[in-house]
Amino acid sequence: NSSRVSFAINAHDKLSGEANQIGLYEGILFDNGREQVRFTMDNISYENTRNINAHIDYKLRSNGGSWLQHLSELPGYLNGIYKISAGDGVVDLSDGSVHEIRIVVKDAYGNSSEQSFKIQYSLPATPGWTYPGKMFYPLMMNIGDAGDDCEFYIGEKGLYDSAHINYVRSSTAGADIISATHTIGTTAIPIQDTLVVRLKPTLALSGEQMDRTVMERISGNGMEVVKAIWRNGWALGKFRDFGSFRLVVDDSPPLIAPVGWKNGANLARLGRITIAVRDNLSKYKNFRAELDGKWLRFTNDKGKSFIYKFDERCPPGKHQLKIHVEDEAGNSSEQWFSFVR
Q1: Sign of the torsion angle spanned by Cα atoms 160, 166, 167, 171
Q2: What predicted TM-score, i.e. pTM, was given to this entire model?
C-alpha cells in the first residue's frame, strides 16, 4: 500500500523470419513525458551473469512464473545495466494526480515498440501488511537475530534490496544430524554475494566426527552441502541462497559403479567408458582416473556420470583403470577395473 511504485515488463524480440524468441536490447520508462530510467544490454561479462537476479522479478520466477524485467534499479545492484535520468525508476504518486506512464522497448537495430497507460494513487482502505523478521539492507553489514546455537550475517554486497529476513529454529531427528534445523529467510529473496552461517552442534563431538561434519542447506526438494569450518566450537558454512541449515556427520564413502559394462569385459565394440558416482549427500569434490598408471581425463557436465571417449591414450589390448573419488566430507573410495579393448 505504498505511493511509490515500480514497473516490470514481459517482452521479447524476434529476428525476421525466425520463430525463436530473443531478449531485449533496451527498455525505457517515462513519467509524464520525462525519461526516468533505462536499461541497456550492451556490455555484460560472464562473471556478472548472476546479477540477472536483480533485473527480474526473482520471487515470481523462482516460483515458476514468467520472466518480468524491472524498469527500476535496485539499490544494491551496483555498476549494472541501468542508466539513471530523472530517477531510479520508482515513481512517486503521493501527489494524487494522474501520471502518464510510457514504456519503450528497442532491439539493437533501433526498432521499437511502446505501451502507454495512466496511473493514480488513492489512500488504501486497509492498513499495509506486516512481515516477520528483521529488516536487512543492501550496502550494509547485516547480522541476523538468531538463537544461542545459530549466527548468520550477510555482507555489504549480499542483498540487492531491503528485505525482512525471518529466522525459525526447529528440532531435528536423525542418527547423523547433530544440530537443530535453522531456517533463514526464503529462497524467494536472491543473494548476490555470500550468506555466512555459524551453527553449534547439540552434542559433544570427537575429532573424527568434526572432521567428517558438513553443513547442509535444504530448500524444497533441493539440497547442498559444504564442509564445515570449525572455530571455537562453532561450525561455519558459506552459501549463496537462503534455506534451512543443519549439521550432519557424514562417514559414508561414495560408491563407484561402471555403467553399461563390467569388470573384466571386452570393450572393443564400445566407444566410451561410463562411470557413475553415488554419494549419500549427492556431493563429491574430487574424481581422479588413471589408465595403466597415467592420469586420464573424464568429462562430466554437472551430472552423476563421468565419461571417457576412447582415443589414442587407450590403444587395443589389456588395460587397468583406477578410479578414486572423494566426497565433500572427506570420505573416499577407490576401485580398480580391468578390461580389454
Answers
A1: negative
A2: 0.88
